[in-house]
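Q: My collaborator sent me two sequences in one message, no labels, and asked for predicted structures for both. Can we handle them in order? The first one she listed is below.
A: Yes, handling them in the order given. First sequence, followed by its structure tokens:
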Amino acid sequence: MSQSWQGSGRAVAAAIGRVGVWSFALDEQPVAGERTIARTVEELGFGALWFPESLGSKEAFSRAGILLSATERIVVASGIASVWARDAFAMANGTRALWDAYPERFVLGIGISHAPSVATRGHAYERPLAHMRAYLDGMDAARYDAPGERRPPRVLAGLGDGMLHLAAERADGAHSYFVPVEHTARAREVLGPEPVLAVEQTAVLDSDPAKARETARAFAVHYLELPNYANNLRRLGWGEDDLAGLGSDRVIDAVIAWGDEEAIAGRVREHLDAGADHVCLQLLGPDSSDPRLDDLRRLAPVLLN
């Protein structure tokens, strides 16, 4: 049932642009607040707005519809929709419905999630690569066809080589999260030149090292405890002293950019130079519900020019 996805990543890269926004703050907003965030991100000129589907998030397709209906041009992307939240046919048909309603403006990012979240949903996290491959077979077997010549795009959450190879084979490309620049270089090597590579980059717009790292650590500690992210860093050469507890300064600085506008823009450029097509910036502050729109206004002229 697998389809050929060769060459389709370039169209996705063109649609989402070089720089976008990734926001967990959407999870703590009412619908009216989400609409305001989406409109502001679009007005500032960013190419895409990425959103999560965690256990506490709004359902992915419902949220995508909210964000798409509030905007006119920006691409909305799931980062990621969990394969455990719906069956493969529902995932495919929901994607095609949005693609029909908002042509060229939705990118489905899908992922295998993490063992603790999967267990909470009542499933067993086993053989993730094989599960994803079978899930994609199910999506490709769906019979709903959206009007238009181009099928809805999809990218896979990818850290390890196996999932990255699958992203190149069975999707438009990959979406990476909580990664240092060296992972971007490795991901591009594995994907090859055609698939799109969309990299999330967390950042703190604060030049005070102590304050910036305090904010960064409050966010990073959860990810350092998740095996998928910790093992990815181990594969890249990070040691147990770096990953233990709250993380070393060295590893925090590698996965979370901080500093002034030029410092954060510099990290974005490093990812682009290492092979990313698109970098989606997730801005942090002391309040996790704050979408950091003022920070985005400060950064937009530097990032987008």
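Q: And the one she listed second?
A: Here it is, processed independently of the first:
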Amino acid sequence: MIAELEANEALRRREFPICQRKIYCAHAADAPLPRRVAEAMRNTVDDASTNEKQFDKALSSIAQTRELAASFLGTEAEEISLTGPTSSGLNAVANGLDWKAGDEVVCYLDDYPADVYPWLALKRHGVKSVLLQTETLGEITPRIVERALTKQTRLLALASAHNISGFRIDVETIGAICAERRILFSLDAIQTVGAFPVPLKQVDFLSAGAQKWMLGPSGAGILFVKKTRRELLRPMMIGGWNVVSPNFIAQPKIEFAEGARKFEPGGYNHVPIAGMQAAITLLSEVGLAKISARILSLIAALKNELQAVDWEFLSPSDEPDCASFLTFRSRHTASEKLANMLAENDVVISRRIDRANRDWLRVSPHFYNTMAEMERVGRLLNRITRA
């Protein structure tokens, strides 16, 4: 599909309508909906306005979406919950575990707040937050993690990729370190799911919203809970959809639904679920390995267009394969001016400001972007910064 999209602009514009008007390179922020995703959501809305509620059909759609998500992630459907934004999954873990005073949770203060605040809030239970320190923004190595772990560490909570620098952590090695010490490992994976593989063998919990690299709608997301960790979590919400028996109130013990469904909310908005199902189907058709390779080739092409003497790069340079996108700033021109000029030329990117008040440009293309687009973005940036 990638080669076909590159060669057939009419097809690309039909499948990804944003391409008719914009060069869109802000998938690390929010993705425009592909045609088939938008159509799936519209069809669901139309069906809801013209037909009676068909619960068997709805339940089948939910099951299919969980199966698709599990297959895409390389796990089992019973380990997948359909939730909401990334924060809903992270909070299900943070508030579902049975914490004890003196427990420690290790996290990174410069991660996106959704993956920081739930853990800091555990202070009310007497849980101590241990904050990782890095020399470069987001570059969390296994060695840095290992130095922070103690006998009191109960859980390590990290992002699979940093939201500003794009640095992707070594999930497999870090997970193995945690497993060896019997420490739980939670991932905020919204910056990688849909773009890069996430090895789950040593991961206990994973949360990801659908609205970025998954090319899905806002308000939809997934929570992975490893089977062996399921009984450690107490569901945050209890409703008819995640309880087996309709007469549970009269029973001495609540019996929750099998598998990860017990962590899903008590009701469903089927519109975002339909969108997420269509999005995962699209990504699966393209293939995750091809998507990853394409993204890396696009950001490499853009970097090659930019003259190093004019630009400072935050994204990994020694290990370019660890990058999720390209983050940089001009040595001569304010990032705000550059972003505004790009917008005037119908190029959509993101600006991000770090804790040191440095203003960065973040360019995050997806598989349907083209090499010609990267060349145009590079030429525009070079022209503006030298003007």
